[in-house]
Amino acid sequence: MLKINNISFRYNNQKKVLDNMSFSLGVGQHLCIMGESGSGKSTLLKIIYGLLDVNSGELFWKDRQILGPAFHLVPGMEFFKYVAQDFDLMPYISVSENIGKFLSGFYPDEKKARTRALLEVIEMIEFADEKVKNLSGGQQQRIAIARALAKEPELVLLDEPFSQIDNFKKNSLRRKLFTYLKKKNISCIVATHDGHDALSFADQMIVIKEQKIIAIDTPLNLYQNPPEHYVAALFDDVNVLKINGESVLLYPHQMKMTNSSNYKATVLKSYFKGFYWLIEAELQKQKVFFQHTAKVDENVTVYLNFEK
User: Fold this and answer.
1) The pTM is what?
2) Multiple choice CATH, 2-229, 3.30.70.100, 3.30.565.10, 3.90.1710.10, 3.40.50.300
3) Residue 16 CB neighbour total at 10 angstroms
4) Which among 121, 164, 176, 297 is least surrounded, fewest beta carbons within 10 Å?
């Protein structure tokens, strides 16, 4: 189990990047860390891996304390793997050679089978013999993930792992990757600003705002009952409305057109989203967004009701 106890961190004499953070992660569990750019997500991953020394607090994996470069000649915990946003691959050797770089050469058949299994996870069998320098950024990102898993770490840390991967590959890769990690009982922490990453795989989710953890819960609970606008906005567009004197957070799918209601809005624009239209309108002197099955003309008056 990973235990983070009241850690704080700042770079040199600058303001705190992380302020008094505590949480835990069980073996085989998946955690998503979310927050806007600059909130400290990447710094937190580096601390957990052992690349930075905290100013206060402690970190443990099982019974072993995680310590940074002040205590290790070569920083980084050997039973963890960290995939940063710069992939640190070897460009002039093949995809297979990159993945198998740290696997023992004494068992060539086992090494070959392990490399092929990871190529299947990242859906790059056909690129096994291609030199990495010839591949796109998204393909290199997938190779970096596979290389991190080659020796089956106890915990893998992924920093924006799907940021350069095309949408049509991203969904399939997410499913295969996190299914594989669960099967192997590998703990995982992902830092991301994409709510779809959290909803599709995480057992727990942490939200960071202004250097502090403001929410810890399951993605389902945080999506359905966001404690504040900032949390809800990580998942989708969100409306803040006064209903019966109370501020209420509503996603676009929770607002529907109806024949009559007390809430009258003027349509400003319609956006095609595939199986629905996202309608932008003015309600109570503020912009709101709601879903509808068809385009609605601009300046049309509509009535809305809400499904909380």
Assistant:
1) 0.91
2) 3.40.50.300
3) 15
4) 297
Q: Residues 101, 104, 108, 114: is their CA dihedral positive or negative?
A: negative
Packing angle between helix 108-121 and helix 137-149, nearest 10 degrees?
130
Cα end-to-end span (Å), the chain: 37
Per-residue pLDDT tens digits for 39-77:
899 999 999 999 999 999 999 999 999 999 988 878 888
Question: Which tokens sit at 277?
Answer: 């239209």
The yes/no answer on whether domain 236-306 falls in CATH 2.40.50 is yes
Q: How far apart are CA 62 and CA 79, in angstroms?
A: 12
The pLDDT of residue 171: 87
DSSP 82: E
List, in sequence order, every residue forming a beta bridge with 82; answer none if it has no partner.
157
How many residues are there in the chain?
Answer: 308
Give the pLDDT score at 288.
95
**CA–CA–CA angle 264, 267, 271 (5° rounding):** 135
CA distance to 97, 127, 169, 183, 293, per residue, from 133 (Å): 13, 12, 20, 32, 46
